[in-house]
Amino acid sequence: MITPGLTPAGPADVARHYDELDGFYRALWGEHLHHGLFEHRGEDPAVATERLVDRVADLGEIGAGTEVCDVGCGYGATARKLAVERGARVRGLTLSAAQVKVARARTPDTLPPGASLELLQGDWLRNDFPDGSFDTIVAIECLTHMPDQAAFFAEATRTLRPGGRLVVCAWLTGDDPGRAARRWLLEPICREGELPGMGSVAETRELISRAGLELLAFQDWSGAVRRTWTVCARRVASALATDPAARRLLRDPAVRSRGFARSVFRIWLAYRVGAMRYGLFVARRPVAGSGR
Predict the structure, then answer these.
(1) pLDDT band at 8 (very low <50, low <70, confident <90, very high)
(2) Beta strand residue intervals within the chain, DSSP E
(3) For the chain, which terminus, N or C, has the lower number of CB atoms within 10 Å?
């Protein structure tokens, strides 16, 4: 597990990070605060980000009436898509006050019959959802923000119904990133992004198993998502060149999270040298006595 090398970030640090960089993130990423899954050269990033959500929904078997929790829901774009397009009953959870305010403002006036959408500010590791609340839990790129990843999976096991599915899209380290990559790429990425820890594929598999979940599938999407960071690097460079407000934000010493702009370029490089990977895990809470 790669750690920041300093006191790990807690929930309040993560919330502050997203609150401070609210406008920056929306300009950089758009509605979805996650990678795109690119399949074609020159593809529109918006199409790629929607595709990633569709794949997650398919693997999570999300349809009409499915009880879903979107952990780390950001601005609610994934949660809205699942409610509007799939007819699911979705609860989204984010630490950020700025994010939940935007997410609620974008809630549709009407939803398909049987669907629902509730967007909440809260900490997944201290949630008050009853046992067995959900058919499906999705967590797109929030695992590395968890100060206790074992507890993240334990809560998934507790709140899933027997037979329910967990779909996690995770930032991961390479199997052996090397000393230089750790020092100059991965540890600074964790510090600048308020990431308490970034694990490997093997470490994440072990956490899933220890939580009592059955791993159904792992897919390495590194090659399909890494173009996201080419897009982001260009947008950051453009913002710094043309937008005085962006320059002021990233120079303001009162903005503790301003260093994340550097991480955009670190992550771009980390993917290209194999120091970072991107993986999708699909797991299931077993059904007692069924062997499944």
Answers:
(1) low
(2) 67-71, 89-94, 116-121, 134-140, 160-173, 214-220, 276-284
(3) C
What gap in Å lies between CA 246 and CA 214, rounded to an integer?
Answer: 45
Query: What phi-psi label fits residue 65: left (phi over 0), alpha (psi between -120 and 50 degrees) or beta?
Result: left
Domain-located, residue 165: yes
Residue type, 126: R
CA distance 252 to 272: 31
Please choose, from the candidates 216, 33, 20, the residue with its C-alpha nearest in 3D space to the C-alpha of residue 141: 33
User: Could you tell me the CATH number of the domain that includes residue 224?
Assistant: 3.40.50.150
Q: Return the pLDDT at 259.
A: 79
pTM for the structure as a whole? 0.94
Residue 291 domain-assigned (yes or no)? no
Q: In what order do the strands lie in the sheet with 214-220?
A: 116-121, 89-94, 67-71, 134-140, 160-173, 276-284, 214-220
- DSSP H helical ranges for 106-171: 149-159
Residue 194 lies in a domain: yes
Q: Which domain holds residue 143?
A: 11-284
| Mean pLDDT, residues 22-41 | 87
pLDDT (tens digit, 9 = 90+) per residue, 162-181?
Answer: 999 999 999 999 999 999 99
The DSSP output letter for 124 is G
What whole-number percentage of the chain has pLDDT above 70?
Answer: 98
Residue 91 within any structural domain of the chain:
yes
Question: How many domains does one find in the chain?
Answer: 1
CA distance 240 to 173: 29
Of 191, 23, 196, whose CA–CA distance to 102 is shortest? Answer: 23
C-alpha distances in angstroms, 172 versus 80, 104, 120, 169, 177?
Answer: 27, 31, 27, 9, 11
Distance CA 193, CA 17 (A): 8
Single-letter residue type at 64 = A
